[in-house]
Amino acid sequence: MPLLDVCFSPELIHLYDLKGRIVVVVDILRATSSMVTGLAHGLEKIVPVSNLDECKSYSQQGYLTAAERDGKMALDFDFGNSPFSYMADLVKNRTLAMTTTNGTRAIRLSAEADKVVVGAFLNLSSVAAYLQEQQKDVLIVCAGWKGKFNLEDTLFAGALAHKLQDSFESENDATLASWHLYETATNDLAGFLSKASHVQRLKNLDIHKDITFCLQQDVYDIVPIMEGDFLVPYIPEVIKN
Amino acid sequence: MPLLDVCFSPELIHLYDLKGRIVVVVDILRATSSMVTGLAHGLEKIVPVSNLDECKSYSQQGYLTAAERDGKMALDFDFGNSPFSYMADLVKNRTLAMTTTNGTRAIRLSAEADKVVVGAFLNLSSVAAYLQEQQKDVLIVCAGWKGKFNLEDTLFAGALAHKLQDSFESENDATLASWHLYETATNDLAGFLSKASHVQRLKNLDIHKDITFCLQQDVYDIVPIMEGDFLVPYIPEVIKN
């Protein structure tokens, strides 16, 4: 059976051998939720970039640009980090350059993996289907908050571990912790997360609607997969049928 | 109210400002459990050191020496990492130099804190009493396993968070996760941990007895506190009375 493991922070990623593995990067609030939403609504591809200047420079190539720092939209970009902004017609068949506080960094640090894909509650079952299709060892990389552990990404890891319980070996401490936390929280994810640090931070920014949206499961069927420099949408066979 | 936070790995410690804080280092299986046991049984003091050669050199000063690597006792030392070995008469009024895979490293990395103390289930209530006495911000540093998250240290963090719930502010994600995991596990810590990686590792070394011992609460009333280069025993006033 392939292995499933969870890395709670990009700061711990050097402790894992990524070669031969598929990495699932998760940043529920809100980078990976927004990426899934954008690609599901017709974005052709997304280039995750590290810093604001590099991101802005992509507008000269006709790309849309998105930037978030500390939960807020950075100045002079087309988008911030709200999934709702990616539902507009103007994203169709466009390319987006995106930089966020935690999520895009986690993607970049995972580059050595065989494949890097993007997960969110919004595409949970599709990510699970993709991993079952591939049958390789998996590492879920939680983007966290500025290197620290966070609850919402951990709950996603636990939800994915539940989905994969019969087809992946997951008896390591981080996966067990994620599993149990998801089991405790599953009947009321929003309630469970209401004390979480980043949820508090976002509440101060008045984006309750975003949080509710990002905690919905299986709204979209695409899995964003890194191909070269770009995230492109993929739909697993079993989900298509 | 002072703050309580949890750092899940020595690899994340640079993300926290230790100045003005008390750090509680925990390595349940078995470094901090053994330290507490030794000091409770009459060891005068313990010097935690980083590497095997340095540790061995202390024998020339008449110190006892203890060394563990990968769960096993290293060659040519007086002790390994089993708490039972520290119950012998020969430890009385002696000084011990000790190096372990994870625990002594976590202590060394915490040096910038106002105070560094050592916690285990064996002295849980005394650690809580000491922290209530001090009324400073607290960071629990889990030694983990070679930098990775582990369950047993996290459960200790959750147990301590429960003890301090009325006197410390603990609404950060790592403390909330520890809290919930402890709540899930509390009625059967050994059963909950039976799938944990390090417990599996130790089972292969046939030290079931050590694990059972280390999961007992409040066997000893001393708190090991770093004073200069040494851990020395302290008994909080409220525990004395």
From TrEMBL, chains A, B:
Gene Ontology molecular function terms on file: 2-phosphosulfolactate phosphatase activity; magnesium ion binding; sulfopyruvate decarboxylase activity
SUPFAM superfamilies per the UniProt record, alphabetical: ComB-like (SSF142823)
Domain of life: Bacteria
Reactions listed under catalytic activity: (2R)-O-phospho-3-sulfolactate + H2O = (2R)-3-sulfolactate + phosphate
Species per Swiss-Prot/TrEMBL record: Adhaeribacter radiodurans
EC number: 3.1.3.71
Main EC class the enzyme belongs to: hydrolase
One Pfam family named in its UniProt record: 2-ph_phosp
PANTHER family with a match to the protein in the record: 2-PHOSPHOSULFOLACTATE PHOSPHATASE-RELATED
Cofactor: Mg(2+)
Gene symbol of the encoding locus: comB
Keywords: Hydrolase, Magnesium
Family indicated by similarity: Belongs to the ComB family.
Protein name (database record): Probable 2-phosphosulfolactate phosphatase
Keyword Hydrolase: yes
